Amino acid sequence: MFKNLFLSLLTVFSIQGVSAQQNFLSGFPKGFAPKEVGKDLAYHFIDSRHDLYAARWIHYAEVCTWNGALDYALKAKDQQLVKLLQRKFEPFFGREKALLPPMNHVDYNMFGSIALKLYQVTKDNRYRDMGLAYADAQWNVPENATPAEKAWSEKGYSWQTRLWIDDMYMITVVQREAYKVTGDIKYIDRAAKEMVLYLDELQRPNGLFYHAPDVPLYWARGDGWMAVGMADLLRDLPKDHKDRPRIMAGYLAMMKSLKDYQRPEGMWNQLIDEPDFWAETSGTAMFTYAFIRGIQQGWLDAAEYGPAARKAWMAMVPYIDERKNVTEVCIGTGKKNDKAHYANRPRNAGDFHGQAPYLWCSAALMDK
After folding, report:
1. Which pLDDT does position 94 carry in this prediction?
2. What's the 3-state SS for the chain?
3. What residues are designated binding site for substrate?
4. Contact residues for 87 (Cβ-Cβ < 8 A; gap 6+)
5. Nearest CA to 207 among 254, 161, 241, 160?
6. What are the pLDDT digits (tens) for 223-265?
7. How far is CA 363 from CA 42, 224, 230, 252, in A?
8. Above 60 in pLDDT, residue 138?
9. What residue numbers does the annotated binding site cover?
10. In the chain, what's the furthest Cα-to-Cα distance?
11. pLDDT of 187 strictly over 80
12. Which three-class secondary structure string do you get for 342-361?
């Protein structure tokens, strides 16, 4: 009798435990609901001005924000927002065509990702053709390529390879979208092969990544590109793909280390392992996104990582000001082997580097 009672209670507690784990990523209070937060940020993006490189071409951070706004619109089933995003893009086929980035740099080519996402919504071949041109240009070596660029291509990698951790979002995002549009395995193979190279060359024994081989510092947003890049690539990579185990191992190692370095209130610092540095929002949002995806996909144990993901989201949202701008966003940052360089970086409110990953998190948390 007592044994049966014990087993019954154990079953109840187990069911409650599963339910509690599922609720880590839902049931947020007013003001923190992902649909509410995402709507504010996405409609704010519609009214924003273009972010340009040297007043010439669309900046990758704007593309990242565009991707997040579209993901949110689709999850929220907000057709008005989808149409507004299409309308915002339409001038690139005409009067704003000069703002399209050239297809000669890893940061520029990722522009193709938003065109490919819009094709999946509209089935308008103008988007498809534009996006695939950017995706293919990452592997089609131009005549004026340097010997080093040609050498990367001869090994099967993108000629735009440079072994900067940012690349593992910039390259993989456009190749993944090309794979989803065409079903052609070459695109996801490209992304996976490139990711394995970067993991083998750049990941440290603790799972994190230096900003550069000659800059042994763990800069939050730099590491964030790897975290998001791995999480998204693993979602699209076929289960039997030969590179999946290596990428999963790199992802899990990074997630474990990030959980250890999370601040008690939920944020991560500008330099991840420096406890006296300031809390930085773009890196925090990227790490939170990688946690959310891992929990949803079953790669991360919900009981272990769910509280960390929820705590991070609850800490992130108050950094959005009354103008719907994410604050405490580190501006674009080149490498420098100097901690003071990172400690003293200006912080922008409304910088697309921060708006984008907040939108990614909002959309991800709306997944059922």
Report:
1. 97
2. CHHHHHHHHHHHHHHHHHHHHHHCCCCCCCCCCHHHHHHHHHHHHHCCCCCEECCCEECHHHHHHHHHHHHHHHHHCCHHHHHHHHHHHHHHHCCCHHHCCCCCCHHHHCCHHHHHHHHHHHCCHHHHHHHHHHHHHCCCCCCCCCHHHHHHHHCCCCCCCCCCCCHHHHHHHHHHHHHHHHCCHHHHHHHHHHHHHHHHHHECCCCCECCECCECCCEHHHHHHHHHHHHHHHHHCCCCCCCHHHHHHHHHHHHHHHHHHCCCCCCCECECCCCCCCECHHHHHHHHHHHHHHHHHCCCCHHHHHHHHHHHHHHHHHHECCCCCECCEECCCCCCCCHHHHHCCCEECCCHHHHHHHHHHHHHHCCC
3. 166
4. none
5. 254
6. 999 999 999 999 999 999 999 999 999 999 999 999 999 999 9
7. 10, 17, 17, 22
8. yes
9. 166
10. 81
11. yes
12. HHCCCEECCCHHHHHHHHHH
Cβ atoms 59, 166 nearer than 8 A: no
In this structure, the strands spanning 57-58 and 347-348 are unpaired
Statement: residue 1 has pLDDT above 90: no
What is the model's pLDDT at position 6?
35
Query: Which residues does residue 215 pair with via DSSP β-bridges, in sequence order?
Result: 212
User: Tokens for 21?
Assistant: 């784990």
pLDDT tens profile 14-28: 334 445 445 899 999
Show the domains of the chain with their CATH numbers: 27-365 (1.50.10.10)
- 347 strand-pairing partners: 330
What's the rounded mean pLDDT across residues 324-341?
A: 96
